[in-house]
Design a protein that fits this description.
By secondary structure, the chain is mainly alpha-helical. The protein is built from five helices and no strands.
Length: 150
């Protein structure tokens, strides 16, 4: 089955989301480095443990989100069912990015739940031919080459 054009757009959205999450990872890592390197910053805001914990948790969430988005994009492009499921998860997570992410998330959810999209992601069953029967053994021959008399 030919890959629908909208499937490519879903994969592009997933890769774009992963790229944005990667940029967010860089900013959080920079903020975490600045917090660790500035001893006076630990006394403000949430305190030393709270600030560090918040940044580490944000870093972990962005890593997981980036991984889900990349895996969803690859799975959708390859036409795998698990890619469709991950793309649905990523579309639900996109709903929180108001207004653009919400719009795109709803459109992806609607498209990936349609019958024609589901049909593209169904595994293709290739019929396997039955193995050929083993060759029959030739009847034994006497030493002179004549078949035995039965």
């Amino acid at each position: 089955m030919k890959r629908p054009d909208l499937v490519v757009l879903v994969a592009v959205w997933n890769f774009l989301s992963a790229f944005v999450a990667l940029i967010g990872l860089l900013f959080v890592a920079f903020a975490l480095t600045a917090r660790v390197s500035d001893p006076w910053s630990w006394q403000r805001d949430l305190g030393p443990a709270g600030s560090f914990f918040l940044l580490v948790m944000l870093l972990l969430v962005l890593i997981v989100y980036c991984g889900v988005a990349l895996a969803a994009g690859l799975g959708v492009l390859r036409g795998r069912e698990w890619g469709r499921i991950l793309a649905l998860v990523q579309a639900v997570l996109s709903l929180f990015s108001f207004p653009f992410g919400t719009t795109v998330g709803v459109l992806i959810l609607v498209y990936l739940m349609r019958a024609e999209a589901k049909a593209f992601f169904e595994p293709v069953v290739v019929p396997v031919a039955a193995p050929a029967p083993p060759p029959q053994a030739a009847p034994p021959e006497d030493l002179d080459g004549t078949p035995p008399i039965t």
